[in-house]
C-alpha cells in the first residue's frame, strides 16, 4: 500500500483537485451586478434586461435593473391582446348571426351561438326562436329537395286539426262565465291570485294571473289544471316552458324538428294559438285561460 506521504500520491491528488476546480467553475456563472461578481452554481436570469445574477441580486430591485418592469408590461399586453381578440372578433375571425338584419357576433366570450334544427343555421339569443328568424321560409342548409306535402299544406292540415279539437273539446276549454257584478269579479280575481303559483321574483305589478290547463292527449294522466302567474314582459315561449314545468308535462320543443311532439299554447278567450315571440302582457290579461296542446301545428 502506498504511504500517504508518498510524493507521487500527493502529486496525483493535487492534479485531481486542480482539474475539479476548473469543472466547477464551468458549471456556474458570475453575477453581473457591478459590485458582486460572485460565482453562483444556480444563477438567475432577469427577463427584463436578460442579465445573469446570484440569489441576492436576482430581483429587479436587487440589481437595479435598467429595464425594470419591462417583462411584466409585455405579459400584460399579451394577455390583453388575446382577450380582445376573443371578445371582439373581426370580420375575418368572427361568426355573425345568420339573421340578415342582425350584426351580433356569436360564439364569443360575450355572446353564445344557438343552432336551429329547422334551418341548420346559427343565431344569437335574440333570434334563436324559429319565429324570430322566419325559419319556415328558409331552406335548411344541406337539406335534400323537399318531398311530400308543402308547408302551406301542413299549415292547412294543422288548422283543420285545431278546429276539430276545439269542437270536440269545447266543454273542457270554454271560458269561465263572467261575473255579473264588479264585486263578484273582484272576488273571483282575488281567489285566482290566492291560488296561483309562480316565480316570486316577478313584481306584483308585473304579473299576469292565468288559468292553465293541458288537453288530455298532451299527457297520459287525467286533464291537469292549475293557476299560475307569469311576467307581463315574458315571451309566450318562456311562459310555455314554465307552464309545462308547473303541470309536469313533458316539453321536447327544443329537441324535435316536427310539430308532432311540439307543445303550443291555445288562448281560449281569443280562440287562437299564440306565437312564441308574443309578449304575455300583449296577448293575455288576468283571468284568461290557456291550454297546452301537442301536435296541433304552428299558429295559423
UniProtKB/TrEMBL annotation:
Alphabetized GO MF terms: zinc ion binding
Keyword Chaperone: no
Extent of the signal sequence: none
Matches recorded under PROSITE patterns: ZF_AN1
Alphabetized UniProt keyword annotations: Metal-binding, Zinc, Zinc-finger
Coiled coil: none
GO CC list: cytoplasm
Protein's UniProt keywords contain Membrane: no
Alphabetized Pfam families for the sequence: UBL_ZFAND1, zf-AN1
Domain AN1-type stretches: 25-73, 91-143
Protein name, as recorded: AN1-type domain-containing protein
Amino acid at each position: 500500500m502506498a504511504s500517504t506521504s508518498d510524493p507521487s500520491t500527493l502529486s496525483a491528488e493535487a492534479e485531481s483537485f486542480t482539474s475539479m476546480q476548473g469543472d466547477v467553475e464551468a458549471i456556474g456563472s458570475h453575477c453581473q451586478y457591478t459590485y458582486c461578481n460572485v460565482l453562483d452554481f444556480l444563477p438567475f436570469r432577469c427577463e427584463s434586461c436578460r442579465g445573469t445574477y446570484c440569489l441576492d441580486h436576482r430581483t429587479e430591485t436587487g440589481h437595479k435593473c435598467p429595464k425594470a418592469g419591462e417583462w411584466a408590461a409585455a405579459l400584460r399586453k399579451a394577455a390583453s391582446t388575446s382577450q380582445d381578440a376573443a371578445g371582439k372578433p373581426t370580420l375575418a375571425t368572427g361568426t355573425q348571426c345568420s339573421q340578415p338584419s342582425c350584426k351580433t357576433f356569436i360564439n364569443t366570450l360575450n355572446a353564445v351561438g344557438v343552432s336551429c334544427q329547422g334551418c341548420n343555421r346559427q343565431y344569437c339569443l335574440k333570434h334563436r326562436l324559429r319565429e324570430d328568424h322566419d325559419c319556415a321560409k328558409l331552406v335548411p342548409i344541406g337539406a335534400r329537395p323537399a318531398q311530400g306535402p308543402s308547408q302551406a299544406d301542413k299549415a292547412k292540415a294543422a288548422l283543420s286539426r285545431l278546429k276539430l279539437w276545439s269542437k270536440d273539446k269545447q266543454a273542457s276549454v270554454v271560458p269561465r262565465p263572467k261575473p255579473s257584478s264588479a264585486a263578484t269579479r273582484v272576488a273571483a280575481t282575488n281567489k285566482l291570485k290566492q291560488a296561483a303559483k309562480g316565480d316570486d321574483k316577478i313584481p306584483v305589478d308585473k304579473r299576469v294571473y292565468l288559468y292553465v290547463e293541458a288537453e288530455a292527449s298532451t299527457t297520459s294522466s287525467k286533464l291537469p289544471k292549475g293557476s299560475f302567474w307569469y311576467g307581463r314582459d315574458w315571451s309566450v315561449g318562456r311562459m310555455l316552458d314554465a307552464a309545462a314545468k308547473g303541470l309536469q308535462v313533458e316539453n321536447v320543443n327544443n329537441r324535435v324538428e316536427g310539430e308532432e311532439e311540439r307543445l303550443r299554447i291555445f288562448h281560449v278567450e281569443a280562440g287562437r294559438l299564440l306565437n312564441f315571440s308574443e309578449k304575455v302582457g300583449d296577448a293575455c290579461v288576468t283571468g284568461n285561460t290557456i291550454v297546452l296542446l301537442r301536435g296541433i301545428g304552428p299558429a295559423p
